[in-house]
Amino acid sequence: MRVVPLALALTLLTPLAALARPTGPRGVCQSDAGADLAVCQGTLPSCALCHQGPPDLNLYGARVFEALAQDDGYDFDNFEARVGDAVAAANADDSDGDGLSNLEELLLGTLPGDVNSAFTAPLAPSGDANAFYAVAGRDPRFAFRRVHTIFCGQPPEFDAITAFAALDEAEQGLALHDTLDGCLQSTFWQDFALHRLADARIRPLESIGFDGLIPLADYHWDYRLFSHIFSDDHDLRDLLLADYHVDESGDVVTGIVPFPSGAPLETGGQPLPPERRAGMITSQWFLMNHTMFSALPRTTAAQAYRAYLGMDIAKGEGIHPVDNEPRDVDGKGVTEAACAVCHSTLDPLSYAFSPYNGIGRLRPGSVSRIELTGTFDAARVPWGTEGQLLGTDIPDLRTWAEHAVTTDAFRRNLGSMLWRLAFARPPAPDERTEFDALWRGLPDDGFSANRALHRLIDTNAFQVP
Amino acid sequence: MRALLVCLLVCVMAVAVGCPPSPSPSPPAPLAPVDDDGLSAMAVSTRGALVWKRGPALARGLSQALLVPVEDLCRELGRFDCVDFAHQVPLGGNDAFVKGQYEPLLEPGATSAVAFDRLALSACSVAVELDRVRAGAFIFRGHALTTDPMAPDDADTIEGARFLGTELYRRLHGREPREAELVALLGLLTDDEGRGTSGLDFARLACFAVASTTETLFF
């Protein structure tokens, strides 16, 4: 047992806010120690890596803190620069006692401070040959059933399976991809499976949608745009870059879409001019539903970050603080230490959203001019040009989107979405290599979901029973 | 109600203090051992990474296999669709629009198996009924659907049951049945008291037995 100096022990036993350092995740990933860590591949470690709940440290966080305290070059102000070395110093230990070293857990993507977060690689199958599945290797028939069931929404029929089984290996490979092509054109895929993937990103609510009593915006535009972008080799970057919408007949429309005649309220179209659009995050529904009456649309920015960059600030994910933030531009008290941990990232993310109206025109205490819902007004607030996203200055929302789509976080999140479409679960630690290859290969696919899915069905994760 | 509670209490106490139980029927004879076709010696997957077939795909699969329109597969009280409404969440679906549930369950929940059984039993019952009223059966062919009771030892009955079992495995699982699976289905020709079941009951139970396996639910 390592002897912990008295002063350090007292510090560890005292839950100090100072122990929650929002620069920690970035510091880990920017260090030499962080290069290969699973938690740094297109994302940032969440607070849960080191904390039970900030500021309280978990067993691993305490070990890293101990290493920091033993680092003669460490002072409180150079935490970000030194935390990587502290992580490296803790690598050989097994802080949570689950049988895996801290380094092994960081490489696998499990939590080294949580004994319930661990992974054991499956043993090789043993026994007589399995008459039904190729359990020790890739099984095209198993994959054929999966393609049908996942992408067409129903399993293959007996005759189709029999015919597939009669093909040779090369023919089976072709048939598998032909089947996928057919399924990706199906209404099940385009109007159901993709819509369910979109739910958490659009976050519809019938009561204030166009099917409800108070129709403040029409989320059907959002669903159509989402499905369009995921279909027919369209560019997935349009999730944040599209300056167009898709109408009920499936046609792309580019100009301002007026609210429909006969609408109960003066809403339901797409009021932004194309040059102010940024795909899914500037639809009237998105802005109305998340910004509502906020001067600084933190909820809107947090949802954009969560939905399209895969990091949920409310869960301590994607913390990437900006110096001298939060400034608390709207007087909400977010400079309090407990708030600033997240708001030093969130507020700079939010500034670019603030020239966009939520419900009607921004007017504290009342709703006015409902027809301005989701419109752009450069004079709405004075801080709209002062944002930052993952270390880059962001003068407007279009720049926010253009920078976002260049990041690994965006690509990794696309990979997560595609993976979820296929497996309805996150990748397991032993599938991480194939998962990383999936999202890193998206540029070679021309950011086409369909091409990426063709690669996905060739993975061991998909084909090995 | 009070008398019922007293009775219940007495019973619980009797069990607790170890009183001899009242006479009960002798236990059913154990089933004859069934050859497992070497299944227990086969190598099995150790990955444990199967995909849960969610409600919509489950329903479409049952619909395709049993020739029952999706909307007729299962309705609680004759009104509420089992897959899209009544048992939506346990079957792995989600209702974003009204309930604001934007993500489905990651894994089956405590009531998922019950909801699955409910759906499978209803789908099979509807399918049997549709075949019963048709001029010619589409699914439950080769089997005396309207016979009551059937003669379990009759060669034609057994042949018809095996034919139906094969048809069900092909339709519901896309494969031929193992011999042990067919033998297990033949056990449904007889009820608990050794009498022949009706043709309709056999069809429903055989369909349910085949449809409600984990093979239907995970892939």
List the helices and strands and how they pair.
The complex is a heterodimer of chains A (465) and B (219).
Chain A: H1 6-13, H2 24-30, E1 51-53, E2 56-57, H3 59-69, H4 79-89, H5 102-108, H6 140-152, H7 158-165, H8 169-184, H9 187-202, H10 220-229, H11 238-241, E3 245-246, E4 252-253, H12 284-291, H13 298-309, H14 337-350, E5 387-389, E6 392-394, H15 397-404, H16 408-423, H17 432-440, H18 449-456, H19 460-463
Antiparallel strand pairs in A: 1-2, 3-4, 5-6
Helix pairs in contact in A: 2-4, 3-4, 6-8, 9-10, 12-13, 13-14, 16-17
Chain B: H1 2-16, H2 55-66, E1 75-76, E2 80-81, H3 82-86, H4 112-133, H5 155-173, H6 179-186, H7 199-211, H8 214-217
Antiparallel strand pairs in B: 1-2
Helix pairs in contact in B: 2-4, 4-7, 5-6, 5-7
Task: For the structure shown, list the relevant keywords.
A: mainly alpha; two-stranded antiparallel ribbon; 19 helices; B: 219 residues; two-stranded antiparallel sheet; disordered N terminus
Give a short account of the largest sheet of chain B.
Answer: 2 strands, antiparallel
Would you list the SSEs of chain B in sequence order as H and E? HHEEHHHHHH
How many domains make up the coordinates of chain B? 1
Annotation, overall tally of beta strands of chain B = 2
In short:
The complex is a heterodimer of chains A (465) and B (219). Chain A is mainly alpha-helical and 465 residues long.
Structure commentary:
The complex is a heterodimer of chains A (465) and B (219). Among the domains of chain A are: 103 residues, no CATH class; 216 residues, no CATH class. The N terminus of chain A is likely disordered. By secondary structure, chain A is mainly α. Chain A has 19 helices and 6 strands. In chain A, strands 1-2 form a two-stranded antiparallel ribbon. In chain A, strands 3-4 form a two-stranded antiparallel ribbon. In chain A, a hairpin with a 2-residue loop joins strand 1 and strand 2. With 219 residues, chain B is an all-alpha fold. Chain B has one domain. Helix content of chain B is 45%, strand content 2%. Chain B has 8 helices and 2 strands, in the order ααββαααααα. Chain B has a two-stranded antiparallel sheet. Chain B is globular.
